[in-house]
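Session log. Operator J.P. requested a structure for one protein chain; no other inputs attached. Running the standard single-chain path with token output.
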Amino acid sequence: MPSPNEDWEDLRKAIMGFGGKSVRKSYYPQLKDTLHKLQRFKTLLDHTRDFIFLVDADGKIIDVNKSSFINLEYPKDEISSIFNIIPEGYYEKFKEILSRKEKVSIEAPLIKKDGNLILTEMNIDIVKFNGNDYVVIVARDIRKRKELEDELRRSLEEKELLLKEIHHRVKNNLQIISSLLSLQSMIHDKNGTFKETQDRIRSMALIHEQLYQSDDLARINFKKYVEKLIRNLFHSYSAGKSIDIRLDVEDLYLSIETTIPLGLIINELVTNALKYAFNGRTQGTIYISFKRVKDNLELRVADDGIGFPANKLQESKSLGLKLVNILVRQLNGKISVKSHDGSCFKIIFKG
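Structure written below.
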């Protein structure tokens, strides 16, 4: 391959000679200015860190910037084809790219003089010169970027493992507390206070269990969480009764900050319905709906039981309902209740 400096010298002499001999000497300043622009552009390309190649349809290198020779450590006359500087395993891929004549971006290595590889990101495009198609390859060394990406990936994996372990331990600790409350309730709990507290702790433990088992450590599949929570509550409170549960829960992923208060609200309202809504009856239905309504999230917990007076929602001395009001405020939401053919609690908050 001719030296780029020799090419420029030949071109310069030709232009200077043309300027001296031509009858149309008025062209000479324009040609000289054009030469200087080309030289500046060539200098710019030579000093970029990217590897730049102009290649014909067969892979023959027509032109190359100086940075490519320096970084690949080849003498100028040793690179005649793009296939001299890519691994053999990439030949077919490059032949396909050259034949398709399409603009593409790929990751591919370049071979240095000493045999080591430089992983690059290549942007390949087609250009026309004098009616012929050529390929421009601009390759950027991405080894450092890949090292940083690998380091970040390893760091994230370590943090994910740590978070999973934290959720696992929190779940185990909550289960230990729940077990202690269960033992305490067998001895001292005549009113079921320990049992209710135990259920509240279980609702939180379920969240940490689901996060531990999930690939997403920041969000929870709320539908699956509600299904499991309801199964646990029915196991605790529906003995001797035939209560039908109807769920209409949208498949949404929520943050732990939203899921914990929502889970506790459902725990309290469903527990309240199972304990009091069907007094004197052995059958009934509980409805739970959760969905997105425009910019809000809406939770409904309803039953076809004896009903709950709306004016007693804020006045109730029940610890469970006081807790529901506190949790609704924590969500910056609003709660309302209707009592007609049963009761229906509706909670709306931004989500």
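Operator note: Confidence is low (pLDDT under 50) at residues 18-23.
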